[in-house]
Amino acid sequence: MMGEDQICKRQKKNKTSFEELADDSKLDVFRRLDIKDRGKLKCVSKTWRILISASCFPTYAGLLYKREHINKPLGEISKIPFDNSTRRLGFSTTFSLKSVRLGFELTRELQESCNGLLLLCHSVSHYETILEVADSHNSPKRKTIYTYYVVNPLTKQFLKIAKPKRNSASYKYAALAYHPAESSHFKIVRFRVNHLDIYSSQTEKWASFRIQLKENVLKAKWVKQSVYFQGSIYRLSMSHVLRFVDKNHCWVVQEIEIPHTAKIVNEAACIGLSNGQIKFASSDGLNLKIWELNKQHGWSLKCSFPCNKISKIYISPKPLTFHPYLDSIIVGYVDSIDMIMNLTSIEYSDEKMINYTKPIFQSIYSRWGKDHKFVFPLFHCEAPFCI
């Protein structure tokens, strides 16, 4: 039989300290910790601080776009991968969430993308029997129920969230506020005229906040495009960029006028986050201009160049989204002969265009004007959110 001393020596030999683990194993442990615990552990050593920061930082994986079919408009979501070594977008492939088992197809449901999470809004219509007093008979009335889904396509984690109230407005567009380095919880921000409906995964409840907007802001066209950055939601309209921020558990709005020299034709404008800065781009059909929002919430012109510098056969350039880490913008161009839209990536520097890629995909043009937001940045995030 094995003696006690031999057993103790064998047990000590089999024990592995945390420092002896591979970096991948350490990252997996750090991702499972609460945000407060990760903050404390950053103080242990420089190595731990670097690893913990890496475990929380989403990586850019490319683009998602709604691809059109003649018989099924916007019926397919495709993915365009990004190659970090060549700094190029690759060939498109079909993107599916079937492995997540949501119970419905990913078609028109995609609303927003934020640091590794996707926000979907699924609607189900049914008929309810309602008694009409005047006619003294039962009358079926069509009801539509909206449900939000927050999904991490990499970890297959998802959460189903009911709309604030069953009888609330049917408007379903909302923004997503999430960054794993700030918190393991997320917020859904739903816009209603002079109100915001906010869902917090921490409280698991909806809360409504009244906001004050000027008359000209209310009348302007609001674009279904939002960006989350350092605790604030930025949403684009045709007159302003609206900054929604949580101050002491009370949401307020800041109205930032778009640059006075920005001439927008056919809603050809977008906002995005690039290199830690909020960027704004617009096109008047002749020139494409890109601005950067400074700390004083004023705009600085970053780049401007003629649209025909890319190609003389393309018209109606439409800026769509920015690359998060490069001075690059995704633009949709329409072929003036065949009326086919092409997606193009343009690299720029101060005051000039450096390079642009060949068209990534083609699609029938007619539908895109009805769905402004059809290109979404895709991130991979291995850190699970709290549920």
Automatic annotation (TrEMBL):
<feature type="domain" description="F-box">
    <location>
        <begin position="20"/>
        <end position="57"/>
    </location>
</feature>
<dbReference type="Pfam" id="PF24750">
    <property type="entry name" value="b-prop_At3g26010-like"/>
</dbReference>
<dbReference type="InterPro" id="IPR001810">
    <property type="entry name" value="F-box_dom"/>
</dbReference>
<dbReference type="InterPro" id="IPR056592">
    <property type="entry name" value="Beta-prop_At3g26010-like"/>
</dbReference>
<dbReference type="Pfam" id="PF00646">
    <property type="entry name" value="F-box"/>
</dbReference>
<protein>
    <submittedName>
        <fullName>Uncharacterized protein</fullName>
    </submittedName>
</protein>
<dbReference type="InterPro" id="IPR055290">
    <property type="entry name" value="At3g26010-like"/>
</dbReference>
<feature type="domain" description="F-box protein At3g26010-like beta-propeller">
    <location>
        <begin position="145"/>
        <end position="330"/>
    </location>
</feature>
<dbReference type="InterPro" id="IPR036047">
    <property type="entry name" value="F-box-like_dom_sf"/>
</dbReference>
